Amino acid sequence: MTDLDLRLARRAAGSGDELSAILSLVNAPGLITFSGGFPAHEIFPVEFVRDLATGQLASGAQVALQYTPTEGLASFRAALADWLLASQGVAPEALMVTSGGIEALQLICRTLLDPGDRVLVESPTYVGALTAFSGFEARIDAVAADSDGIDPDALAAALAAGPPPKLLYVIPDFQNPTGAWLTTERRHALVDLARQHGLLVVEDVAYRELGFTGEQRPSLWSLAPDVVVQVGTFSKILFPGVRLGWAAGPPALIPHLVRAKQNSDQCAGGFGQWLAESLLRGDRLEPQLALARATYAQRWAAMSAGLSKHLGPEFSWSEPGGGFFTWVTGPRDLDTTALLPRARDLGVAFVPGAPFHAARTASSVAGDRDRHHTLRLAFSATTPDEIAEGTRRLGLLLTGAAS
Fold first, then answer.
1. Which GO terms describe its molecular function (predicted)?
2. Largest CA distance in the chain
3. Going by C-beta distance under 8 Å and a sequence separation of 6 or more, which residues neighbour residue 160?
4. Which residues contact 86 (CB under 8 A, 6 or more apart)?
5. 124 preceded by a cis bond (ω within 30 of 0)
6. 61-283 architecture in CATH?
7. Start-end of CATH 3.90.1150.10 domains in the chain
8. Which residues contact 82 (CB under 8 A, 6 or more apart)?
9. What distance in Å separates the CA atoms of residue 135 and residue 139, rounded to the nearest whole number?
């Protein structure tokens, strides 16, 4: 048989395996993993799901265990719309259910992107988004960001240079991978630029509800529902065992995403929608979120203490106000990718910084040239005791390599 690699489509041949590598470390024995953005299994609502399944599944089987409409169950979409109105102050004009947030990105790509179309992203950004955009052969340009999120001046410069982009992808709240939290002032500036340039903004709100204090800033979608499509997921705030998310955006766009979904998995799972609707209608989501915020705040405190204790002054890291991640920067001659085999020997895992960067920069200030001396640490799925030991091992690895 001939080598099938020779037959791969161009988009498949160029795709990376970073997400597969991260997911492969779930529950790896003997390993303290700071790699994946996995939620804490200790706070999964196991009793609620058990009681619901044993008490109400028989009467709800025709909904929970059956195919659903492509756009999602009407009753779940109504509950979701009510929650979005309560939490963000805007009722969605158009809303669909997706099989997780990443599927929503795939549907947007399938609907909007032709090969060579320009996409803007903050630098660095979520690996899964870069994979989705590159899989549809987009031209991905990076825009500078800092601890306050994407820089509006750099965005304006990117919009003024090159062909008009099809979309801008941004994670405003406790960003993956840096933990940055876009300021309210920058949020207004961003949507103003989007309106001026006719730019569609894809807002990923995976971590929006997970601020340690519960404080929230206005979502981009609530500020400009005419130019923003919001991509959300229940994987981080409930559990990823059922793949469930949403897309809310302009009424002219969402029906096209629904049609694209008909050509992928046809519909999101009914069981997950049934569970999530029960949580939303039963006022159980807010207590779940409060528990999650407290848990992740405690784990970040342990991570911060461990990094302060075990890393030297040549290292710095972001100080997230929520979410799952911190971004560590070391000396410029450090190569975190080259350290991965040694890290595994020490029983600790992280993700090097390089995969979070687009290949191109949209301007000379994009600031992603020095990629190899950074790394992302996730503190969400490890206990404080594991974090204490894991940061000790990490300190041995990083300080030894930097000395």
1. transaminase activity
2. 64
3. none
4. none
5. yes
6. 3-Layer(aba) Sandwich (3.40)
7. 4-45+287-402
8. 280
9. 11
Sheet holding 374-378, edge to edge: 316-317, 325-329, 374-378, 351-352
| Dihedral sign, Cα of residue 99, residue 241, residue 358, residue 230 | positive
What backbone torsions phi and psi does residue 11 show, to the nearest 5 degrees? Answer: -65, -30
6 vs 76: CA distance, rounded Å = 45
Unique residue bearing structure tokens 């560590």: 328
Q: Which two tokens stand for residue 290?
A: 């409060």
Rounded CA gap, 335 and 389, in Å? 23
Please state the pTM of the whole predicted model.
0.92
Residue partners of 74: CB distance under 8 A and separation at least 6: none
- As a whole number of angstroms, the distance between CA 237 and CA 206 comes to 8
What is the token pair recorded at 329?
């920067």
- Dihedral Cα 272, 273, 275, 280, nearest 10 deg: 140
| Phi, psi of 86, deg, nearest 5 | -70, -40
Q: What is the pLDDT of residue 362?
A: 59
May I ask the CATH class of domain 4-45+287-402? alpha beta
Question: How far is 281 from 373, CA to CA, in rounded Å?
Answer: 47
Question: Which amino acid would we find at residue 270?
Answer: G
Convert the pLDDT of each residue in 252-289 to its tens digit: 999 999 999 999 899 999 999 999 999 999 888 999 99
Nearest to 295 by CA among 268, 258, 253, 323: 323
Q: Which tokens belong to 308?
A: 């302060």
